[in-house]
Amino acid sequence: MKKLIRIIPITIIILLITVSCKQEYSGYDKTDSGLYYKFHTNIDDEKPVPGHILQLHLRYSTEDSLLFDDSEMSPAPIDILLNEPLFEGDINEGFAMMSKGDSASFIVDAESFFTYTANAPVPEFIEPESKLFFDIKLVDFMTEEEYVKEQERLTEEIMEQSAELARIEDEKLEDYLEEEDITTKPLESGLIYIEKEKGTGQPVNPGNTVKVHYEGKLIDGTVFDSSKKVGEPIEFVVGRGQVISGWDEGVSMMNVGGKARFIIPSHLAYGERGVQHVIPPFSTLIFDLEVVDIVEVE
Q1: d(Cα 287, Cα 219) in Å, to the nearest integer?
Q2: For this structure, is 287 an active site residue?
Q3: Which entry of 79, 225, 288, 293 is annotated as an active-site residue?
Q4: Quick check: 7 pLDDT over 80?
Q5: What pLDDT is recorded for position 298?
Q6: Averaged pLDDT score across all residues of the chain
Q7: Do residues 111 and 80 touch, judged by C-beta distance below 8 A?
């Protein structure tokens, strides 16, 4: 007797393959709750529990668009409170699977993540049933009490470092003034204004739109910026905070055609943050400026 051979239509086979591909992701395992996970580094040590503060590096995306990457903000890890999962397959479940030093990837339902975990409206470009792809490296975790103590320690350390950098800035300024034989006293704000050439044109007042040529140097003489390199003066409204406060104060003391040197301490410039790769924190700046014109606003 011949065996009965059941022929399955090709359309059903294609449907089964498609459903299978959607349910499984290559290289990933799946928890009972539906969270897809894949470990790249798995130390398998102590795990965090809800209430712990996590310090981690995090990026997540849709299949074709990056939505968040903490490395774009700072090289330091970000701090996240670990919560109980708010839905089946929540990323919080993934966090709780990791040990210090672990790195892993997770796949989470996008709509549920924004609705419950992020507590935010689902972006319009997120299609129904879309997935989010997370890449995470867990740097450390600690209790809330440990976290508070660590933040207090870091704050104290930063304050000590800032005080030392401020002291060094003052020493460098004193050395510069002595080397350049500058005896001009600073204004009440700390700005040292040295007039090089008295302008004969209209006086500059707060609210004026001015055109200014300038060259900016660090106190060691390093030129970090110059309008003359591009051939066009900078234009800004005086007193509106569009430039550093040392500029606003100094330019308002000038006339069109005037030239001056501003010696600007860091608290009137870029302060304790500086400008990445250009101006170090706590940098006194030297600017040579010329007021080219006042622009009449219609």
Answers
A1: 10
A2: yes
A3: 225
A4: no
A5: 61
A6: 90
A7: no
User: Which of the residues 176, 224, 288, 293 is marked catalytic?
Assistant: 224
> 134, 270, 286, 294: which is the annotated catalytic residue?
270
CA-based torsion, 251, 254, 258, 264: positive or negative: negative
Sequence letter at residue 116:
Y
Distance CA 71, CA 138 (A): 14
Cα 241 from Cα 223, distance rounded (Å): 23
Q: Catalytic: which of 134, 263, 287, 294? A: 287
- How many Cα neighbours within 13 Å face the side chain of 9? 3
Give yes or no: 220 in active site: no
Question: How far apart, in whole angstroms, are the C-alpha atoms of residue 243 and residue 104?
Answer: 44
Strands 29-30 and 36-41: antiparallel
Q: What is the pTM of this model?
A: 0.63
pLDDT digits (tens, 9 = 90+) for 161-181: 999 999 999 999 999 999 999
Is residue 74 very low, low, confident or very high in pLDDT (cuts 50, 70, 90)?
Answer: confident
Domains and CATH numbers, the chain: 26-142 (3.10.50.40), 182-295 (3.10.50.40)
For 221, residues 6+ apart whose C-beta sits below 8 A from its C-beta are none
